Amino acid sequence: IWWGSGTRKTAEQAARDGLVGRNVASLVSPPKVPHTEITTLTGPQVRALLTTAEGDKHEALIVLAVTSGLRQGEILGLQWADVDMDAGTLSVRRSLAPVASGELIFQEPKTARSRRTITLTRTAIAALKAHRVRQAEERLRAIGWEPRDMVFPDAIGRPQHPSNVSLDWRALRDRAGLPASFRFHDLRHTAASLALAAGVPITTVSEMLGHANTAITLAIYAHAVPGSQQAAADAMDAVLSAGA
Q1: In the chain, which stretches have pLDDT less than 50?
Q2: For 220, how many CA atoms within 13 A lie in the half-sphere containing its CB?
Q3: Do residues 134 and 56 make contact, with C-beta atoms less than 8 angstroms apart?
Q4: What is the pTM of this model?
Q5: Alpha-helix residue ranges (DSSP H) falling in 17-85
Q6: End-to-end CA distance of the chain, in Å?
């Protein structure tokens, strides 16, 4: 049995109030959270991926994923009303998710910080503009197009199922010569790692990813912060030298 933090607090209060003889929750050890190594692409690998994606129906989707760090559900939940091309920004207001029945539903962002506005790269803006033109042409050819304002819809304008994107992603990944273990979600990790390696402050990267706080970002991407251990060693040397 795993006693959550809320259960533990309740048991502690009950013990203090004399309602129970002792707090049995304190005798239970919490489960260890397994550490998962994240996989990211190097700069040359990202360039190879984007070159392979040129002209592909998912080109803009891939560009957006690897430059913004958006989750797949957030990308598939985007509507054109969320994109401000002139300002170069994109607002995350919902996420698309499949449910047990196989249907797709729109969900609220995971946390308050997940509801956010991010600044798009010039590469992403160009890809989205080209994608919009291509989509307008597809809409004219489609039979039974549903005007749902989706940025990345299916063939007739409806929200696109994540499994279809994942299938197409694997084919594109293989053509780009990337590792077979590299998932679509790893594009999010790649965006964060490359930004941190380039010196972008971790607070900014945390906001971009929509993490609840910077502690989460640091826990996942501490390895990507350049010179963090060297900076610690230099600071310690400075303290010791001052005292000599």
Answers
A1: 1-5, 33-34
A2: 21
A3: no
A4: 0.80
A5: 43-53, 59-68, 72-76
A6: 54
